[in-house]
Amino acid sequence: MVSFAPMSKQDETTGAPAQATVRLDLWLWAARFYKTRSLARQAVETGKVEVGGQRAKASRAVRLGDALKVARGEEHFEIAVTGLSDTRGPASLAQTLYAETEASRLAREQARALRAAERNGYRAPETKPDKRARRLIKALGDIDAL
């Protein structure tokens, strides 16, 4: 359920129609980039979200057409705002709130493939190390400290 602010309000200073806006942290939460609003606020405050190429505050107003860069873990998104919502809905509806650039999508897929290739061939041990193995591991750690 996307709630759009009414476009009929007018700006008191210019008399032009006011543009609908939503707080940045609220929009990021509604668009399902972050699980909670406080995580979205924390991401904005730590510089993981840029609006128009500049760091922003959590209370910054997001408008239709704004360009955002969002870093979430190892993934980086470059998106354009296509819808506004202040409520969190289903994922299918949240995906209609933004449009990711093709370059961003390709870069994320390449990074994901690279991480999968790096993990390829690793096999986790089937059991915990026994006493002898722990001593060998500790001895190797001492060699690396030199």
From TrEMBL:
InterPro entries: HSP15 (IPR025708), S4_RNA-bd (IPR002942), S4_RNA-bd_sf (IPR036986). Keywords: DNA-binding, RNA-binding. SUPFAM superfamilies: Alpha-L RNA-binding motif. Residues 22-84 form the RNA-binding S4 domain. GO terms for molecular function: DNA binding; ribosomal large subunit binding; single-stranded RNA binding. The keyword Secreted does not apply. One of its GO terms (biological process) is cellular response to heat. PROSITE patterns: S4 (PS50889). Pfam families: S4. Belongs to the HSP15 family. This is Heat shock protein 15. It comes from Lysobacter enzymogenes. The lineage of its organism: Bacteria, Pseudomonadati, Pseudomonadota, Gammaproteobacteria, Lysobacterales.
